[in-house]
Amino acid sequence: MRSPAWLFAAGLALLSAACEHTTPLEYEPPEALPPASDALPRRLTFNPGDDRNPSVSGGVLAFSRFELGDERSVPGGFEVAERCIALLPYEGGTISARYCPSPFAVPEDSVVTWVEPVLSPDGARIAYLWEKSHLHDVRTPKRELRVAPAESPEEAEVSWSALWTMPDGRRPTTVIKPSWTGADHLRFLAGLDSVFKVKGGGSTRATDTITVAYALVDLDLTTLEATVVPGADSAIAYAPAPDGGAWIVQRSDSTRLFHLPPGSATPQEIGSFSAPVYDLANVDGVPVAGIAGSTVEALDLATGISNTVGILGGQVRRVAVVPGTRRYVAEVEVFTETFTGPGGVTLQAGSANLWLLELP
Questions:
Q1: Which candidate, 184, 175, 181, places its Cα nearest to that of 211?
Q2: DSSP letter string over 214-279?
Q3: pLDDT per residue over 274-301, tens digit each?
Q4: The pLDDT value given to residue 18
Q5: CA 131 → CA 54, 65, 69, 146, 174, distances in Å?
Q6: What's the angle, vertex CA 228, arms to CA 63 and CA 327, rounded to 5?
Q7: Phi, psi at residue 182, to the nearest 5°?
Q8: How far, in Å, CA of 261 to CA of 342, rounded?
Q9: How far apart are alpha carbons 64 and 55 in whole angstroms?
């Protein structure tokens, strides 16, 4: 008969063998696969949930992702879901990493979500917008622009409140489209989120949000000082210009493109698009915009006239350049809901996926 001591030792050996290859809660990504095709335009994500806020650095596409089935139940019968950060080779294929808010750090009556991710040029750090909302008061979320190591976004090294006071007294509540302008500097659109009750939205949609951009802002990560870019107070879309200045679209006429030269506070009009601009990118020195409808247009700097360079089956909400190429990633939203917003205005909402395109 075997002794109890032997049985205990054997049990330890089996336990050791069982834990030899993996660590509890460790994520093992699936085997990496190449893109489904080489054709362009090419759809990069096929998420029945929602993929938004693309940015590309060092050949890596970072974006905000919500997957159906990620919802969790909380007291009161609510089903809530947080958005995660995903990384993907910009050409497509298999997601290489997915980072989500820790369930152990989220109170049961709250939702924490991560959006607007952007990797630093060297790929070592990631900036993103952290948001925490209370289930019983969605009108006053807490938002912070955070910077963390790229492989552990939850370990924030810098946190800056998105609720601050501009020189004219306005109080932005959110950050739109952050980008790196230096090792310790970020640029973004400061904006206001207006939460409203939905009419005709059904039981699954009690409220929604309209975001209004206020101005283009620079943030020094060493001092946490935020400064409105001179001449860009009313910017609603922006991109870096080749001379080190900025291209901006202003609220007063969202079809016209302006150039802010370095050191100047006077925008200079350089051309116009055929419809209101949702987002703007510098693609190999060419202003490329997602405009109202399902169209991407490029503006000829010599003539100031825009031309269609992409037509997709949904609204292009965001355009992200692939640095060093003539390629760009478009966030394309397909509308699935129609509801009534403030003042009786009919609004549409839906889910989005990401596409890869190239300038001709």
A1: 175
A2: EEEEEEETTTTEEEEPTT-TTEEEEEE-TTSSEEEEETTEEEEEEEE-TT--S-EEEEE-SS-EEE
A3: 999 999 999 999 999 999 999 999 999 9
A4: 40
A5: 18, 14, 21, 10, 9
A6: 35
A7: 180, 175
A8: 38
A9: 10
Which structure tokens are listed for 226? 């935020």
At 28-42, the pLDDT tens digits run: 667 888 887 899 999
The amino acid occupying position 273 is F
Strand partners, 84: 65
What residue ranges do the domains of the chain occupy? 42-358
Q: Are 131 and 117 in contact (CB under 8 A)?
A: no
What is the distance between the alpha carbons of residues 260 and 304, in angstroms, rounded to a whole number?
Answer: 16
Q: pLDDT for 191-232, tens place per residue?
A: 998 766 666 655 455 556 688 999 999 999 999 999 999 999
CA distance linking residue 198 with residue 344, whole number of Å = 10
Q: What is the pTM of this model?
A: 0.86
CATH architecture of 42-358: 7 Propeller (2.130)
- For residues 162 and 31, give the distance between their C-alpha atoms in angstroms, rounded to a whole number: 38
Give CA–CA dist 258/248, Å, rounded: 5
DSSP secondary structure string for all residues of 284-334:
TTEEEEEETTTEEEEEETTTTEEEEEEE-SSEEEEEEE-TTSSEEEEEEEE
* Interatomic CA distance for residues 31 and 189, integer angstroms: 38
